[in-house]
Amino acid sequence: METSLELYQLSTTTVLLLLAAFYGGTYFLTTFIKKDQEDTDAFMVSNQRIGFGMGAASMTATWIWAASFYAAATSGYTYGVSGPLHYGLWGALMILFIYPFGRRFRALAPKAHTLGELIHARHGSSSQLILAFSNLLGSIISLMVNFTAAGALVAVLSPLSFQTGIAIAGVGVLSYTLWSGFRASVFTDFAQLVALMGISIVIIPAVLFAMGGPSVMLEGFNNMTLEQTSLFSMDAILNQGAPFFIAVLAYAIGNQTISQRLFAVNKNHIKSTFLTATLGYGAIVIGLGMIGLMALTLGVEPLNGEGNNLIPQMVSTYLSPVFIGLFFILVIGSLSSTADSDLSALSAIVMADVYGKNLAKGKVDPKRMLFIGRMTMVAATMIGIILASYSFDILVMLVFVGALWGAIVFPVIASCYWDRITNAAFTSAVLTGLALFCISRFELLSMTGFTGLLFELLAFIGAGVVIGLMAFGFFGKWAGFVAGTIAALAMTYFATGFLREYTVLLSSLVAYGSSTLVCVVMSLLNKERFDFDLIAQRVGHYDNRNELAEALKNKKSPGNAGLNPARLAKES
User: Fold this and answer.
1) In the beta sheet, which residues pair with residue 3?
2) Each residue of 187-196: pLDDT tens digit?
3) Structural domain includes residue 261
4) Domain residues for 139?
5) Are 487 and 242 spatial neighbours (Cβ–Cβ below 8 Å)?
6) pTM of the entire structure?
């Protein structure tokens, strides 16, 4: 039996007070950041000095956005027991798998601000701009999604309009991020994560016991299908788990919000930071996804047939207005922590990848760079608000971003380990992967007969690449080669003639496989070798005022008595 529930609405005054309290409090926190320490490097990556606690909290808060738990709940409602696990576990692994490769990225370019800078030093502008473009597009889409979520939340839980919610969220996030950039994002993420965890710990069990407790939920299992009650549902694995698993490396490598924190965290804390963020994200998102499973066991019908209404629907139906207010803060906090990270990522990409490495031509003006970063935030906020106001269907754009990130994974990682990869190999591999992805994803060619078999073979190579790279990151080259080979052969044996029926999974693997194949073949034809030491020489800080101040401060110590302040100033 299906149950239809209506949403409780907070008053206009209550919602405005909650928004003012949240964004006012967040802005107040940023006033504690010392403004006299601001420079371009602090604005982008906090001078690579973020500690373990702040780094882990920031990564966790950034990765938990409004779509995370809405989608996790929908997953629980659609696939049952295994749904939240697939969503939360694979999302958590996206954080984890940047760590082994991140150590290599930091070793090669200890003073980098973006992964694009490293690729620019390795290959040049065309490869770097491909990476920068995919990150710009991805961050704009993410910003738009978060503003849209804010508008929808305000419209659903209050008499205010959708556009009003979007505008308040946009101005609120910009207000506390504009001056200090990445530092403000990290600093406020800590407080936002504490609020997220506290509210989640209260709301999830509150909903469970308000609906009757675990016994009622267990009784509802009788209303579920056999697939929904299975922890190893093939339906969930093939339609959600496997595509998410394939996306793990794509998001880990392609998302600037992750790599920005990688370059900002103290290098001694990279492992502990990303391991902790992995556990934190998984626990919170899987827990929130269980609300969708609760709705399924009760036979709840999503309001207006929209899965995104499940969590607010359950909260507003079973809990008091106080809890609804807490839930409101939970969503606003989650989307704001990601939106401010998107603004920081966008500003860093334009500052470093566009201006620093291409427009400035080696003559970077730190003040102008900082101005460009802030204007990027303002422009991005306006674009995000406008796009969100039109409620565009973002599926197609997300598809292309996913394809780009999938196609760049092997070229980016291999470029940091293999000295024979060229700029031409990198660019050709990404473009080929994107083109073949589109053909298979949108079925521009019929996936039957020889064509279907060809694309499946590329996908099997892609599966081997994904497993191989994961094993390589943690266990080394030979473990990666063996694991990848076994995975590709297993897929060939078990999935031939079968994989073509699952378009999303097929196309994602094709992007990996085809880009890898082109990159390897073209690189084997190259006889020149690249000196990786050149990367650190080509990537540095843009504003050395802090380094100069420290050097001048230390010159009085016996070990530095010979330092020449004039020479230091000239070198900076």
Assistant:
1) 300
2) 999 888 988 8
3) yes
4) 18-33+42-392
5) no
6) 0.89
